[in-house]
């Protein structure tokens, strides 16, 4: 590509950082501009509900590439500014009062937390968690201890916040719609593992429940005092955290005429419907060649690897993104890694290797005896083998898979 060409990356998360890194490592020596809405270099978000929220990580641990790196690699890093309009015909993007021309552009605009829309949502003491600022404010509130915390939502963010809040010495209640936490992500049996973990650590799980209102001392103003369930029961609360999912940030793309459907639609090469515009990370609903359909993934590993792949595409490489989704969590004394295709695992045959009661095991999900997902809990150095089994696409014996004395590699084709 000509040195006169310019690549613009819009986003302030890990996908944007890895795309910028990849563009330069691929040898592109033209102009590169990164537009990040927050007043800091693009950063990664898992510590915000894990180490940073718990106080074991500092803010620097969230930033994979600092401002000095961007300067050293001659990348124009614009922080604290928003891209407000995109002209896909004229190949320009509006940033503040400036119109920046581009040859190729990446949308890595991420997602925003879904808000509680019932009464009381605007009370003080009601939190969502997405940005470093959100986590800083929430950490300060939780670290005092001795508070009554209600978490609305029993997904990954909700449970990680509940674990952190409990660790700080707060009394924690989690409200979830399903019979067990995480059932839509990992099924009822594995969801019960996390339910038991939280109950064992003193968390009050209110499952199959809904929230009708958040209560305060006045008419929609003041500090939160409680949460009203659909049953009419009111739970006292000094602090409420809303963790009910996220929605992809597609406003910029949609306004420019780019195809949007649960995120920005892309092909396997991460190309959008607009020429020379790509998408990656939480916002991208990308065609996955293994599944044969589109897949949008809101996890750290996907943001990193898909961002890097998008960077190669921006630099001119012909890519096909086919990574196996991966995510992890840390809650209390439990560490977990998951690799696989949740849509294929749902309703599949569950095989457990190890000790479920002690929470030291590897779980596999099979379809027609093919491993389509695997999750290791407090068992390490096996995720690579799980991914190999998924990618190999071979039929396996469930009995052998469940036997800890059978090496996982022995189940792979020679």
The number of helical runs is 12
Shape: globular
State the helical fraction: 25-40%
The tally of domains stands at 3
Low-confidence stretches: none
CATH class of the largest domain: Alpha Beta
The structural class is: alpha/beta
- The chain-level mean pLDDT equals 96
CATH superfamily of the largest domain: FAD/NAD(P)-binding domain
Major beta sheet, strand line-up:
3-2-1-7-19
* CA-CA gap between termini: 42 Å
Give me the CATH architecture of the largest domain, please.
Answer: 3-Layer(bba) Sandwich
CATH topology of the largest domain: FAD/NAD(P)-binding domain
What composes the largest sheet?
Answer: 5 strands, parallel
Number of DSSP strand runs: 26
Share of residues in strands:
25-35%
Cα-atom Rg, whole angstroms?
22 Å
